[in-house]
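=== RUN LOG ===
request id: a7f3
mode: sequence -> structure
chains: 1
length: 333
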Amino acid sequence: MSVKLTAGQLAHLKKLSDENNVISALAIDQRGSLKKMIAAAANQPSNETEIVDFKKAVSAELTKYASSILLDPEYGLPAANVRDDNAGLLLSYEKTGYDATEPGRFPDLIDDQSALRIAEEGGDAVKFLLYYDTDESDAINDRKKAFVERVGAEAKANDLPMFLELVSYDANMDSVTDEAYSKVKPHKVIEMTKEFSNPRYNVAVLKLEVPVNQKFVEGFTEDGVTPVYTKAEAAAYYKEQSDATDLPFIFLSAGVTNELFLKELQFAKDAGSTFNGVLCGRATWKNGVKPFAADGEEAGKQWLQTEGKANIDRLNKVLATTATPWTNKVTTD
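=== RESULT ===
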């Protein structure tokens, strides 16, 4: 099995990838969280201009080394306009966060956005983020499935690939980073990987979490922390996740450090995972927020030109030996 794309979708997917058909994408579609990061670094409230300017700096300095960049249309279009000529563009379709007025973490779309407008803005893909708990009620999850069906159909109708970003959670737990959630995370991640690989959703590429919390894997824990998984158990989960889909899939960095993300990619490769690249956000640029917000734009650019570039260089070096080209997972009409 493989995903069937239109010729137009395939051309856009190639634009988003490197010469080896591996996706080495930079993600900076953060909105609310980035606003908080800039405010904390500057020790004063942030404004929209600072958010726009930081995204522009990241795009201008780092897309020279990435195959593509993910941005949001609310603050990110000026950054899209200063990206490298060879870098593809993904644009977010969903509002930041989720609806907190009712249970279920339901998504919402940006009011003045559409797949057609994403195409008109020069986007090569529609990116849609979904929070999903496979064990939540059918009443909640069926609404989410229908939502994805609509977005996928709309993206395909506009000849754009849809990148579906899946973020797991447990409706009965407050934290996804602690030991208790680590025990159920593999089940949550693998089951949603299976579900949204169904052709009815018209997903072109899945953007996935790694299936374990690596900080609770034997050999990766901090002093005094009891592992949740042995290395063999963790490796089996990576392989099971990979086997759960016929679609191209890429890993998101989920806020971990650059160093840990690189170790996760190598661990995935060693486990037999056939992942096809990354969409890496905070692991690349997070530490550049402080010099940018506290010391000024030039200091921020200096960090991006040195440390930020080094982060991507390390990532690209690891991807060259770990990621699999997506070509054998794709056919065209």
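=== NOTES ===
The radius of gyration is 19 Å.
The chain has one domain: 3-332.
=== END ===
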